[in-house]
Each structure stands twice: as C-alpha cells, then as structure tokens.
Design goal:
The structure is a homotrimer.
Chain A: H1 5-15, E1 29-30, H2 31-38, E2 41-43, E3 54-55, E4 57-58, E5 68-71, H3 80-83, E6 88-91, E7 104-107, H4 111-122, E8 131-132, E9 137-138, E10 149-150, E11 155-156, E12 161-162, E13 167-168, E14 173-174, E15 179-180, E16 185-186, E17 191-192, E18 195-197, E19 202-203, E20 208-209, E21 216-219, E22 222-225, E23 232-234, E24 239-240, E25 245-246, E26 254-256, E27 261-262, E28 267-268, E29 273-274, E30 279-280, E31 285-286, E32 291-292, E33 297-298, E34 303-304, E35 309-310, E36 315-316, E37 321-322, E38 331-333, E39 338-339, H5 340-355
Parallel strand pairs in A: 4-5, 5-6, 6-7, 8-10, 9-11, 10-13, 11-14, 12-15, 13-16, 14-17, 16-19, 17-20, 18-23, 19-24, 20-25, 23-26, 24-27, 25-28, 26-29, 27-30, 28-31, 30-33, 31-34, 32-35, 33-36, 34-37, 36-38
Antiparallel strand pairs in A: 1-3, 2-7, 21-22, 38-39
C-alpha cells in the first residue's frame, strides 16, 4: 500500500528532531553519564526528585520534554530557557541560574562541544557495513580491504589504495592511482582523481577533487591548456562540503591541511595551500597559489585572489574581496579587504555624508 | 554512418527554437484556442484575412513566421515589433497598437503568463514513462508505484516511499527512509537523504539535499562534528536548481515552503526556513537558522548571515550582504544591506566627492 | 597487503610534480628539441659543458634538478632564479641575464606558452582508449563510433550522435538527441541535455549543461514554469569547469562561443551568448539574455544582470556587479560596476574622509 505522501509530510513535520526514519538511537543515559561524556558538571534540579531519572533523547528548547536533553549556546535564544520543559539542559556557567527549577543541568565552559558529545551519545555515527556491492567496478591492482563499504555503481580505478574501514558511497568515482586513508567517508557521486587522502577524511556528495586547474596560455590559434601536473593532498580529518571543487596543482600540489573544514560550493584553485584547521564557509573561493596559515577562517562568499599569503588565525569576513596579503590574526572585511573597524567606519561616514545637504543627492 | 558534427552544429544553429531533436510538439491551434488557454483577448489582424488561420509553433519576434506565435514582455525589445513577421503576438494592452497590421494579437495584462501557457500548449511536459530500468537498485521495504519512471543506475534506499507518477532520473540516489510525493521530477544525479518531499517537487541535476549541515565545535584535538539530527522538508511544488545544496537541520528541520523556487548553485544552511513562494536566484546563499517569510525574493549572489529574520515580500538585491533582520516589504541592496534609495545615493555621493578637488586622489 | 596510507601520504608529499602514480612521461629531450617545440631561443649555460645534455622532466624552480626544466613567468617569483638548480629555465628576455651561469635557458617572449608546450612534450594528454564499458546504456539510434571511449555506467539517450575519438567518462548522462563533436572529453558525472557540442569540447566533472532556465510567470495559484524551448550550443574548443551550470535557452539558444573557457562553479543563465575566446573565472554568474562579445574576461565571483551587452575585450573585475552595458575594451570593477580608476579613487577618498576629524566616526 502506498502511504499518502501528504500525510507523511504532515506527520513528519510534527515529529521533530532525530526522526526515527533517518536516525538510530542509543540510550537511555543518566545525567551523570552524559555529564561525564560532556566533561561538564552535573547539577540536579533545584526542585523535585531527580534520582534515577534517565534521558532518552535530545531536542530543541522549544519542544524537548522531561526525558530529553537540550542546550543553550547562543545568547540570542536565552529567553527560551524560561519556558522550556527540557529535563536536562546544557548551559554555560553564566546561564546556570536561569535553568528552570525542575530541570537538571550540565554546566560547561564549552556548552556547544558538550552538546555535540551528548547528541553523539544518543545518535552515534553508523559504522561502515563491510562489503562490496556487486555492481561496483574495481580496477586492476586496486587495494580495497574487506572492512570497507563499497556502494552500488562505484568506480575504483587501477592501482587505487584504500585504507581499512573506509566507506565509498554510491556512484563515487575514484581515479587511477588515488590513495585514500582509513575510516574515510566518501559520499555519493563524489569524483576524486590525482589525489592523496589521509585518514578520516569526509567528502560530501558531489565534491570534485583533483580535476585540472584553470591554466592556459594564449597561443596563436586560441588558448592552449597548460598541463596540470600536481596533485590534491587532503590531510587527515579534512572535510569537504557538497559540490565543492578543488583543482589539482600545476607545478606543485594543492594541499588542504589536517583538520580543515570546507563547506558547500567552495572553490579552491590550483597550487593553493591551506594550513591546519582552516575553515572555509560556503561559496567562498580561493584563487591559485594562495597560501593560508593555520586556523584561518574564510567566511561565506569571500574571494581571495591568487599568489597571496594569509597569516595564521586571520579572519576573512563574508563577501570580502582580498587582493593582497593579510597579517596573522587580522580581521578583514569589505571589497577590497580592510580591517573590520575601518570598514564599518567607512560605512558610517558615507551614510553621514549622503545625508548632509549639498554633498549628496539628497 | 556518422553524421558530421560540424554540419550538425551549423544546421542546428539555424534551427531556432523548439528544435525537433529535443522537443515534442502538439497543435496546430487556432488563435481563439490559444487566447482561451492564455486567458487573453484575441484580436484579429487589422489587414488581411485571418479566418481559419492555424498556428503550428512558437518563436522569437526576430524569426517567427506567419504560422508562429511570439510575444513581447520586456519594453526593451519593443522595437522588434516593427519588423516582426510573427503571425500572432502576445502583448500587454500598452503595446497592442504597435502590433503589425497583418499580425493577430492576444492582448493580456499578464503577457508573460499568457505566453507561458501558449508555449506549453505547443510543447507539453512529457509525462512519466512508467517502468523501472533493470539496473536500478531498490532497497528493502521501499514503496515505488508502477506508475513511476525509474531510470538507469538509480539507487533507492531501504524504506523509501515514493508517490504515483514520480520520475527518478538516471543515477539519482535516494537515501534510506526518504519520502517523495506524487508527480515529482527528480533529475539525473540528484542525491537526497534525510528528507521529506511534497508533491510536484522538481530537483534539477546535481542538487544535493539533506547532507550534514556545517556544524562543529572546537575540541581539544581539533574540530568535532556536531550531530545534524534534523531533516530537509521540501513542501509541495518546490523547485531546486542544478548543483544547489540544502543541508539538513541540526536540531530542527530545514524547510523550503510550498511553491518556492531556487535557482542553480544556491546554498541553504541548516535549520533555515523559507516561507511560501520565495525566489532565490543563482549563487545566493542563506546561512543557518535564518527565517524568510512568504514571497521573499533573494537575487543572485546575495548572502544572508545566520539567525536573522526576513519579512514577507522583502526583496534582497543582487550581491547584497544581509547582516541583520529585514522588514516585510523592504527593498535592500549593498553589503552591508541598506534600502535601495540609500545605496544609490551613497554611490552618487562618493562619485561626487571623488571628483571634487581636494577631497579625492585626483 | 594494504599499504599504510600514512606512509603513502608522506611519500607523496615529497614526490613533487608529475607523480608517476598519476602522470605518464615521455622523453628525454635535448634543449634544442624543447626550444623548437616552445618556439623559443635556446641559450646554452654560460659555464660548464652543456653538449648532449638531455632533460627528463619538469619541476618548479625551488626543486627542479640538473636534468629538469623549469620556468619563470611571474615577476614576483624572480628571486627564486638566484637559488635554483634547474638545468634548463624558460624565461622572458628581461630575465635571461638572471639565469644561473650553469643553467641553460629557453628565451621566449611568451614564456608561459613556451612552458605549456614543453610540459606537454614530457606529459602528453593520454589518448582515448576505444571501447564501451559493458555497463553503459546506449539508446536507440544513437551513433557512437568505435573510436570513442565510453566509461562505466554511462547513459546515452536515443538519437544521440557522437564524433570520432570522443571520451565519455564514468556516469555521464547524455540526453536524447544531443550531438557531440569529435575528440571531446566529457568528464565523469556530467549531465548534458538539449545541447549541441562542437569538436574538442571539454566538460569537467559535474558540469550541468542544458537543464531548464529559471523562468516562470506568476499565476493565480503560484508560479507557473515557462517552457524553455531553446538549446545550449557549445562551439568548438569550449571548456566548462567542474560543477558549472549552463541553462538552455527559452526562445533562443544559449551559446558559448568557440574557444571560450569557463572555470568551476560558474552559472550561465538562459539565452545568454558568449563570443569567441571569452574567459569566465570561478563562481562568476551571467544572467539570462546577456550578450558578451569576443575575448571578454569575467573575473571570479563577478555577477552580470540579464539583458545587457558587454563589448569585445572588456574586462569585468572580481566580485564586480554589472548592472548595465559595458563598452568594448573597458575595465570595470565594483558593485555597481565602474571603471577601475574610479573604483580605486573612491576607495581612497572614503578612507581619507573617514579619518578626517568631524566627518566620520573617528
């Protein structure tokens, strides 16, 4: 019998977080167990008996019930504390007193991290299901351990080497000679070529890794492609978002440093190098041969020209256009990029001048 | 015999609109039939006998002939009316008198809508061709009605439910538990997971729906992924463009309201909510937890930060950078966003000041 | 035996350019042979015997050895000449004297083009491997010459015509009626429909060609899709980057002129026309019905509104927002677009005014 999709839609709107159609669930857990995982301090409710209460799941402050865990991370949502019915709430010390009297709390100086670990206890990442789908095409000399999960219609080229426990999702295409570390998660419809991946690398659907960089010379009869002879190196624990594109290098490698995370629809040009634990938010682009230090943040839709250097811990604001080097620790925004303070001073100046009689259009 | 592609290229350049290689054709139709479909007023030609003339197809004003229908929607192209040989022209009342004397007209206060319906009469959307390609992989407990068209190399997960008449294009991957309504069109190489789709939803090639949102906490050894435990809900009649990405929610759902249309390469972050009939043009991005009312328009390459609210019928201009709430009905542009008037006044002010001796570089 | 990915990662970091896992190699070649291919002047080393020396490969100035060829194209890297140990260096005449005394040189007025050809001699593009993978699905009446390479899980529609020597990568989907010229390279997971491709066209992974343009009219019950009845025409030698999207026309064709190159994540709207040898850098977008002349350059993240004309050889800067016609040969930048000089004068003016006491925030 076909279930009425209309009804299904309605049902699931109401179903809230961690819908059982999509997410497996562990537990229940006591508040102390959860606090231990979160490395936070367990605080029983000020009113009512808490002894032996066990929690079965998580939810947002608006809808969590007496056996569910919730959290407050963003000051903007603090008023929700007053009305919540959540049984256990993870909060920073500053908000511990605003937790309702009948709710328990886990107090943590890093509440978002604590939340992350508690949510992960209830909903652990599903492990690889070892095996190869019969339709997968595996090249000559490819090393694919039995512990790997190889999905339908996967294409693995000649001489590919994959580490233990790695998942290759449906339709992924892994080009000749690529090496992939252990416990990686290669999403559906990812294409990887000319690349070397470390361990625990995650590629989301449609990521394109290792295609030719955008390099050509002007010849007498039109553009001539310049051979792109480097690789892409994704170090350990790198994550690349859906439909993002990372071109391989031309005369050196394109390198994404260990622990870096790129969001969706990000573009990385050839020969670019990111240090460790960089963050690049969606739709940002980094042009060829630019180098980022460690812990650099590039916000959404920012663009960096090629052949520049961005210092460690610099922060590039959303939609920023960076045309020259940025010093370590600097905060820049605007197009062209300038210090945050200067940018907002400029905005204020221009607004004032536009209003002044005689200097603007009125 | 291999046809010479050079010739094919030349041939088809000349072939114009609705090339028979790609589009099926209905008709012919009389002017009155077309006017009825268009809900417009049929006006016979001022000169020459029109009685019984039947139209066989559509074309642009520049090339349409005596048995073809054309239209004028953009004032910018009005001069083309003087030279057109189109037999029937759809126009707004203001242009009715400029229609050539030998052409018939359909006069409509909504000429683009009228055109849409006339063009659709000649070229109806091809219906689903019921059947499953032998190569498709269908999971356990999946409900896939016989009226659906399931293309080659499709992967449908366990427990998926699909409504009547839906088309799943080649290589699409539908994750475990996903529900899809009736008469949907899921394009080639789409990936959908952790999602619930209403009826008549259209996903263009390469759309990525339901992957993890970009959420992580800073842990002692690097970033730790925060579990993303919500879904994506696409309500009835939603359309998502090619290679666009919609992340699933973390502690609530990401929701795209009924009738909303997203163009290509659009990014929607986790927990974001769009109201009904919103428009998001290509390469725009909306960050996590932001809420749009109904009938909001976000133009190309605009970016919205997270956790803000955009009121009903607000219009966000191209490349706009929105950092705070926008009121219902407001028109904003610039980065940071400001009212249209203010933005263009600022532009004029700055131009004037840069030219003034002593205040600029010059 | 599973090779340790950790070690593999380390090994290959050291391995440098043109890693043998991924790239085949020709040669060795003499300096004169390479200079002839490069159409440059061979200059033997000023010190030491060069006679009979043969080169085996290429490398960057920092790491190339005595039997390797390197090049200098960007003035910024000129200091590297002092320390390089490269045996042969391709340089512009201005840098010929800075080549180390023990290195040979190829002096060329177009050193990047010369480099391109030398690198290509060592690493020629691998030819098509004729044959069809057994899993490919080929439609009725499709013309696919035996000289073509058709990868696993390819789907070729009814009536498709493909020229000699063309490569169709794994999972590519070619819709009914599409024509593709000879010696094209269609990458993995490309989708093409409603399109006509010339010869030597290259599509990188995930490119989406020919889907419906973003066109709809406001009807009484919501948006109504306007039929998109044109095609996409990619003329000879066009290249389209990874995950870029080109919509088909509505009442005329979307045309990309011969020799044009589009980078990754580029959006081209319906009915848009690019002339010959245009360049569109990553994440730029061109809205519907806009026309570009020949040799137009659109830099990264620029956006052009619809229905405008950009003259021959105009250059649109990065992140530029173009709202009106641009004259041939003009250089524009900013949002809204203005001449380069004016843009940077505005930037300087505003900076000065913001610092002036009394006019800014201080």
């Amino acid at each position: 019998m076909v279930r009425n999709p209309e009804t299904a839609l309605g049902d699931q709107k109401a179903a809230g977080v961690a819908n059982a159609r999509f997410f497996t669930r562990s537990g229940p857990f006591s508040g102390e167990e959860l606090a231990a995982a979160a490395e936070g301090e367990f605080v029983p409710p000020r009113e009512g008996a808490e002894t032996g209460r066990r929690y079965v799941g998580i939810g947002p402050l608006q809808s969590a019930g007496a056996t569910e865990v919730s959290f407050l991370d963003n000051r903007r949502y603090a008023p929700l504390l007053d009305a919540t019915r959540a049984g256990l709430i993870i909060v920073a010390p500053a908000f511990a007193k605003r937790v309702p009297a009948t709710s328990a709390a886990i107090v943590s100086s890093t509440p978002y991290l604590a939340w992350s670990r508690v949510a992960r206890m209830f909903h652990p990442v599903p492990p690889a299901k070892p095996g190869r789908h019969a339709s997968a095409v595996i090249g000559e000399g490819a090393v694919v351990p039995a512990s790997c999960e190889i999905g339908p219609f996967v294409v693995i080229g000649n001489g590919v080497e994959i580490g233990e426990g790695t998942i290759i999702g449906p339709h992924a295409v892994i080009g000749d000679g690529v090496t992939i570390g252990r416990d990686c998660r290669i999403g559906p419809q990812v294409v990887v070529s000319h690349a070397t991946l470390g361990d625990r690398v995650t590629l989301f659907p449609g990521a394109r890794i290792g295609q030719d960089g955008f390099g050509f010379a002007v010849g007498p009869a039109g553009f001539e492609s310049v051979p792109q002879l480097g690789r892409v190196v994704l170090e350990h624990d790198v994550e690349i978002g859906a439909n993002s594109t990372i071109d391989r290098g031309s005369v050196q490698d394109t390198v994404i440093g260990a622990g870096s995370r790129l969001d969706n629809l990000v573009q990385i040009g050839h020969n670019t190098r990111l240090g460790k634990c960089c963050i690049v938010v969606s739709q940002a682009g980094i042009s060829g041969s630019t180098e980022l230090g460690d812990f650099v943040t590039v916000a959404a839709q920012a663009g960096l020209i090629g052949h520049i250097k961005i210092g460690t811990k610099a922060r590039i604001g959303a939609q920023c256009g960076v045309m020259s080097d940025v010093e370590a620790g600097a905060d820049v925004i605007g197009s062209p990029a300038m210090p945050f303070r200067e940018f907002f001073r400029n905005v204020a100046t221009l607004r004032k001048l536009s209003k002044k009689p005689g200097s603007g259009d009125e």
